[in-house]
Each structure stands twice: as structure tokens, then as C-alpha cells.
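Methods — Computational structure assignment.
A single polypeptide chain was analysed. Its primary sequence is given first, followed by the predicted tertiary structure written as C-alpha cells.
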Amino acid sequence: MRGVKAALVAAAVAGALVVGVALGDSSEARSLIVQALALWDTSKRIPTLTQTDLDAKGLLERVVAEYPNTEEAAEALRHLAFGHYYKGQAQEALAYWNRLFTEYPDSPQCAVAWLDKAEYHFKLGDYATAAECCTNIMTKFAATDDGREALIERAFCKQAAQDFQGAADDLKQAAESDPSPERQAKAFYWLGYSHFRLARYGDARTALERILGDSSAPFAWWHDNARFLRAHCFYSEGDKANALTALREVVAQNQDEAGPVCAEAMIKDLTTSVHGGVAQ
């Protein structure tokens, strides 16, 4: 009987501790995370794991162990995964990512972690798995900024895999529905680029002219790129007159360095005898 009673008391104490951790003040957990990130910040330029990294890891592992079932524990797992990924420790990173997705599947930390994992697979050239990571974010966090960003990131994965039609579908959705002017402008530009790669030059110009017709800061940031790509559409489809006009606009209006240089070369190409033209 004494052993049974002792076991019941131990279980009660353990249960009280778990409840206390889950419902108690998480300020210490937050402090441990801040300390860990400060340590990692001092060694992030060193490509391999250092003792400082291991000290940071220890602090984050404390958060995971001592504050289970909290958002701080989920965040600590995300930092542990990214820290190892950043330092080239892929297997450890994958293990921490999988633990986060398994133990805290509904945490907002998963949205950021899926995007980090997408980057990992993208750099390996595994664009399909990277796209799946983005889809996971969209499925669970569709109505959030992370979900909307993931739609555009998935389009980039598809572009990298030469699936420009799939990318155009995602980017069209983003351009038409995203409430963020910054993401909307980005979506319109890359939608234009996807159409360009599909040789749908009219559709490409429509997307690019949507950018050029908006002078607000988020759209103006893309004007140089959009102006050049629009000119390239005319050039690629053999519309010499419109190409020359558009390219000269690039030379006159673009603030970047590369656009005017490339435009000058294309103008020279169009006005040589190779194209059967006369200098204009």
C-alpha cells in the first residue's frame, strides 16, 4: 500500500507541475529565447557550429523541456530547426522541424517553419517538395499573411521547375486577391514574367502595364523591371516599331543600371541590317 500511495502522490505532483508550466507565467521562457537568439547573433557569420551555438541550443532545449504545450516551446523548436539548417546541420534541422509539425501542428510557428523548410528544399533543387511546404502553409494558414506569402513562394517553386503555367495560376490568384499592395505588385510582375516565358506576350504586357499604371510606392518599386520586360515582349514577338519605342522609354526613364544598358544593345540589334532595318 505504501508503494501505491507514494506513486499516487508522485503522479499528483507531476501533474501539478505540468499544469503549472502550461498555465503559468512564460516570462522566463521568453527570456531564455531572447538570450539564445542573442548568442546566435554573435556567431551567425561562422559557418560551423560553435560553443556559442551549443550554449544557445541548450537554452532553447530548456524552453522545450520546461515549458511544454506553450507557444514558447513551439517557437524554440522553430529556432532550433533554423539554427541547425543555417549552420549546415541538415539532419538535425529536419528532426526539429518534424518535431514542431508533429507536436504543435496548429501553432503559427509552423507557418514560418514550413517556409524555412521550403527554402531548404529549394536550395537542394527539390522544387516539388518546396512547393508542398508552401501548400501546407496555405492549407492551414490561408487567411494569414504567411498563407498569402506562401502562395507567391509556391509560384516561385513552380517557375524554378519550369512550370510557368502553374506559376501563372498561383500568381494570378495572388494578384487578384492579396490585400497587400507590396505582394500584389510582386505578383503582377512575376505573373507578367510567367506569361513572357510562355510566349504569351499580350498577357504579359497586360500584367506589366497594370504595374506601370500605378504610381503608388509598392508598384513604383517595380516600374524599372516592368518597363524593361514590357519592351522585351515587343522585341521577342518581332514588333520592331513598338519595341524601339518601349526600349527608348527604358533608356530615358529607368533608374537602374542594367536596364538601359541592355535596352541600348537591343536597340542597336534592331537597327542593324541583320534585321533588315534601317537605322532610326
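Note: The two ends are 104 Å apart (CA to CA).
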